[in-house]
Amino acid sequence: MFFGGYFLAFISIYQWYKGDWPLPLLVATAFLALHIEGTVIHDACHKAAHPIPWINQLMGHGSAILLGFSFPVFTRVHLQHHIHVNDPKNDPDHIVSTFGPIWLIAPRFFYHEIFFFQRKLWRKYELLQWGIERSIFITLILAGIKFDFMNLIYNLWFGPALMVGVTLGIFFDYLPHRPFRSRNKWINSRVYPSKFMNILIMGQNYHLIHHLWPSIPWFEYKIAYEKTKPLLDSKGSPQRVGIFESKEDTYNFIYDLLLGVRSHRKRRGKLRYLVNFYPVMSVKKFLLKLINKTYIGKE
Fold first, then answer.
1. pLDDT single digits (tens) 212-269
2. CB atoms within 10 A of CB 106
3. What does the alpha-carbon distance between residue 289 and residue 69 come to, in Å, rounded to a whole number?
4. Which residues on adjacent β-strands are paired with residue 261?
5. How many Cβ atoms are within 10 Å of 223's Cβ, its own excluded?
């Protein structure tokens, strides 16, 4: 998969200069390359991409460079997500999922870099690794400006990366953890079984399996789910997508599509404090009702 992603990226660049592929096909090829590398970096941060440690590290850093990420940032921040699932203060992905509309979920991944430095999560040489990977990123941009290939970067890197960010945000963060309340390991994320989705999003429809056993590579999630389904049933683990199961689910999903900013307290909170300054009483009542209906409590 690692080499497959780089091969697709190379093909898209070659076709940009030498071929006659239409732009939509070029963008789709670049998107697929980055989408594949997204799974590689995810498995690598759990040491599941390759059994030999240095090769696993190489795959993690290599996929990060193609994605425009930093492997130490991705690893340390993602592991914090696993430790603090659905904790508003300590789960960095909680901000990604609940601090704005779904269609703006990709830019919120920049918060990971802020979280990494706020919490001082780096170990040993990871700060140096971050500096090298960020230097590579900046060098490519400066080279694109100097040698006039920014159009390629916009169309075959930034654009597809934005699309991958939306895909990751929806299928890695938003859908698996709705309604963002439980911190119980058996119900803090969900499964929605599907052979088609298993291939399309590389196993993330079995996200709960990943949280329970994070060292399993993505292609074994489905197998693990089928073997542990009776256990999951007995624990009450969610095994549906959870969007249209009730009116509340549907209402909250529509709200997340359009606005998505959630309060975490039923009676007090920053959102209610801000709304109380609104001068028109009828609008104020409507906004408070909306906040009350969409707030995230604890289970």
1. 999 999 999 999 999 999 999 999 999 998 888 888 888 888 888 888 877 776 666 6
2. 19
3. 39
4. 99
5. 12
Task: Rounding to the nearest 10 degrees, give the CA dihedral for residues 78, 83, 85, 91.
Answer: -60
How distant, in Å, are the alpha carbons of 12, 15, 150, 264, 289 from that of 21? 9, 6, 19, 49, 52
Burial 21-40 (b: 16+ CB within 10 A, else e): beeeebbbbbbbbbbbbbbb
**What does DSSP assign to residue 100?**
S
pLDDT digits (tens, 9 = 90+) for 38-97: 999 999 999 999 999 999 999 999 999 999 999 999 999 999 999 999 998 999 999 899
Contact (CB, 8 A) for 2 and 59: yes
Query: What DSSP designation does 182 have?
Result: -
User: Can you tell me whether residue 178 is helix, strand or coil?
Assistant: coil
Neighbouring residues of 194: CB distance < 8 A, sequence distance ≥ 6 = 205
Distance CA 93, CA 97 (A): 6
Q: Which amino acid is at 191?
A: V
- Cis ω on the peptide bond leading into residue 53 (within 30° of 0)? no
Q: What SS3 class is residue 292?
A: helix
